């Protein structure tokens, strides 16, 4: 992305700034191994562009980003699953989310989007790639929502997301933009009847 590495090529994979490992994190003698994604984000520096590698597991936590990071799944393992919401806030521009399963437990209906982007400037952006986003159920917010700033979404699949009073997959406010490339959106059960909703202009 900005560091110039290819996340699909193990030989080109960068040395991680931090590693998230649910099993080893709490007991690790190494300072840069953490048990939760939130602890890893808090533990990496504000400056530069730290790379956080997340190992396989189910992470029952909300992920809040207020700094620029590359949050990537470990190559070769089962994609890590995040069950709660992911929020890109001011300061997280140019962040990357790569190769995750974003899936809540079936049943609960949420008043929040599964992935929310609200950046400092409408010219800022984040990238979401190689992610499966599914089974989100909500009232007013789509599975992916861009409030301010941009999202570049590549090689993602959004399926079986259902929202009662909004588009099922993606919503875009007037101060935001979304670019969707080589991705699959299949969310036919939303009562609102559309995959993408965008204010004008978006």
How would you sum up this structure, described in words?
The protein is mainly beta. 3% of the residues lie in helices and 38% in strands. The strands form three sheets. Strands 1, 2, 3, 5, 6, 8, 9, 11, 12, 15, 18 and 20 form a twelve-stranded parallel sheet that branches. A six-stranded parallel sheet has the order 4-7-10-13-16-19, with no helix packed on it. Strands 14-17 form a two-stranded parallel sheet. The longest helix has 7 residues, at 37-43. The protein is globular, with a radius of gyration of 16 Å. The two termini are 23 Å apart. The relative contact order is 0.12.
Short description:
The protein is mainly beta and 202 residues long.
N- to C-terminal distance = 23 Å
Helix content: under 10%
**Which structural category fits the helices and strands?**
mainly beta
Low-confidence stretches: none
Topology (elements, then pairings):
Elements: E1 18-20, E2 33-34, H1 37-43, E3 51-54, E4 58-59, E5 63-65, E6 70-73, E7 81-82, E8 86-88, E9 96-98, E10 101-102, E11 115-118, E12 125-129, E13 132-134, E14 137-138, E15 144-154, E16 157-159, E17 162-163, E18 170-181, E19 184-186, E20 196-198
Parallel strand pairs: 1-2, 1-3, 3-6, 4-7, 5-8, 6-9, 7-10, 8-11, 9-12, 10-13, 11-15, 12-15, 13-16, 14-17, 15-18, 16-19, 18-20
Question: What descriptive keywords fit this protein?
Answer:
20 strands, mainly beta, 1 helix, 202 residues
């Amino acid at each position: 992305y900005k560091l110039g590495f290819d996340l699909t090529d193990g030989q080109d994979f960068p040395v991680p700034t931090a590693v998230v490992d649910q099993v080893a994190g709490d007991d690790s003698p190494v300072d840069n191994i953490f048990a939760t994604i939130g602890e890893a984000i808090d533990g990496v520096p504000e400056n530069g562009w730290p790379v956080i590698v997340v190992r396989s597991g189910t992470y029952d936590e909300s992920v809040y980003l207020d700094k620029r990071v590359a949050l990537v799944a470990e190559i070769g393992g089962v994609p890590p699953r995040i069950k709660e919401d992911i929020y890109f806030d001011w300061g997280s521009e140019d962040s990357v989310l790569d190769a995750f399963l974003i899936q809540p437990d079936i049943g609960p209906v949420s008043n929040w989007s599964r992935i929310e982007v609200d950046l400092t400037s409408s010219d800022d952006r984040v990238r979401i790639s190689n992610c499966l986003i599914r089974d989100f159920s909500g009232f007013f917010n789509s599975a992916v929502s861009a409030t301010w700033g941009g999202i570049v979404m590549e090689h993602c699949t959004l399926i079986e997301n259902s929202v009662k009073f909004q588009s099922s997959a993606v919503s875009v406010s007037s101060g935001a933009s979304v670019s969707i490339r080589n991705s699959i959106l299949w969310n036919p059960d939303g009562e609102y009847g559309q995959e993408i909703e965008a204010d004008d202009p978006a």
